[in-house]
């Protein structure tokens, strides 16, 4: 059965829609998916003999920032120049049809914001925002090109770091409160797009919506832990599926 007409109809009837997104939504922008922001470190250790999760941990940043930054710079170099794809653009464009579209993303690439989405909750932070580990210095950069390893604060000389959640670190309180508030206000549809749905804080909104009878949609090439509870499980890439949803919406509006 073709799920797109029903999804389009439900979207047109919605006032508030939540999109939960993961690395898969950025795959069509050329960004590799994690395990290892995309296979960069699949089944291999770093040059220093660490697992990539250890090299990219909060503890390593504190003890040996040059090691963490070596791989942050490598990851950013592989992602540099990426632009929003059709999936990001459709989600942003839905704001013309749905009064409120909330994006709750695991991604640190900033592509939802670049596409024009206005209500974005970045639960893992944003790679382009940098802050000093000692003082109040903050800045934002388009790329890491030209940064030292590790980059040092121009004010106090301490290492700076990206405003992202490294392995072993707590999720940002402000982002957790933002998604709690969004759910408390209620939503009319929940989409899970391009995420393997491994973490409880990603799965729980889908489980909650399903239990409340709120329409749920999963877009992912592979089955996940929430595939069996959603109303519509679409086995396709994010750009393909979101493109079809958008075309169906436009056709229905004619």
Unreliable stretches covering 5 or more consecutive residues: none
Structural class: alpha/beta
Main sheet summary: 6 strands, parallel
Q: State the name of the first-level CATH class of the largest domain.
A: Alpha Beta
Going by CATH, the homologous superfamily of the largest domain would be TPP-binding domain
> Helix count?
10
- What fold name goes in the CATH topology slot of the largest domain? Rossmann fold
* Residue-averaged pLDDT: 92
Count the beta strands.
Answer: 9
**Overall spatial form:** elongated
Reading side by side through the largest sheet, how are the strands ordered?
3-2-1-7-8-9
- In CATH, the architecture of the largest domain is 3-Layer(aba) Sandwich
Describe this structure in a few short sentences.
With 254 residues, this protein is α/β, with parallel strands linked by helices. Helices cover 36% and strands 17% of the residues. The chain is built from 10 helices and 9 strands.
Description:
The chain is an alpha/beta fold and 254 residues long. The protein has two domains: 4-30 and 83-124 and 169-253, Rossmann fold (3-Layer(aba) Sandwich), CATH 3.40.50.1220; 32-81 and 128-164, SIR2/SIRT2 'Small Domain', CATH 3.30.1600. It has helices at 4-12, 36-39, 52-55, 58-63, 65-79, 86-93, 111-115, 173-185, 200-211, 238-253, and strands spanning 16-21, 100-105, 119-122, 125-132, 138-140, 160-164, 189-193, 216-219, 232-234. The protein has a six-stranded parallel beta sheet, with helices on both faces. The protein has a three-stranded antiparallel beta sheet with strand order 5-4-6, with helices on one face. Helix 7 links the parallel strand 2 and strand 3 (119-122). Helix 6 packs parallel to helix 10. The longest helix has 16 residues, at 238-253. Residues 1-254 form the Deacetylase sirtuin-type domain. Keywords: Metal-binding, NAD, Transferase, Zinc. The active site is at 124 (proton acceptor).
């Amino acid at each position: 059965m073709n799920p797109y007409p029903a999804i389009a109809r439900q979207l047109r009837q919605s006032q508030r829609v939540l999109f939960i997104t993961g690395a898969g939504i950025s795959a069509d922008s050329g960004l590799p998916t994690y395990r290892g922001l995309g296979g960069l470190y699949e089944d291999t250790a770093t040059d220093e003999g660490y697992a990539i999760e250890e090299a990219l941990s909060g503890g390593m940043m504190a003890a040996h920032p040059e090691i963490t930054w070596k791989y942050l710079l490598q990851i950013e170099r592989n992602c540099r120049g990426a632009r929003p794809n059709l999936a990001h653009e459709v989600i942003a464009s839905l704001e013309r049809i749905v009064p409120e579209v909330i994006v709750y993303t695991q991604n640190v690439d900033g592509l939802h914001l670049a596409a024009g989405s206005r209500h974005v909750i970045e639960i893992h932070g944003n790679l382009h925002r940098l802050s000093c580990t000692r003082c109040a210095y903050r800045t934002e950069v388009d790329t890491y090109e030209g940064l030292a390893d590790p980059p040092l604060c121009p004010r106090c000389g301490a290492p700076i770091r990206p405003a992202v959640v490294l392995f072993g670190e707590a999720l940002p309180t402000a982002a957790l409160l933002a998604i709690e508030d969004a759910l408390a206000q209620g939503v009319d549809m929940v989409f899970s797009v391009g995420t393997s749905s491994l973490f409880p804080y990603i799965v729980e909104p889908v489980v909650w919506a399903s239990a409340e009878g709120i329409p749920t949609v999963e877009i992912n090439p592979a089955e996940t832990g929430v595939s069996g509870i959603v109303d519509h499980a679409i086995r396709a890439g994010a750009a393909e599926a979101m493109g079809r949803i958008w075309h169906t919406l436009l056709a229905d509006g004619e």
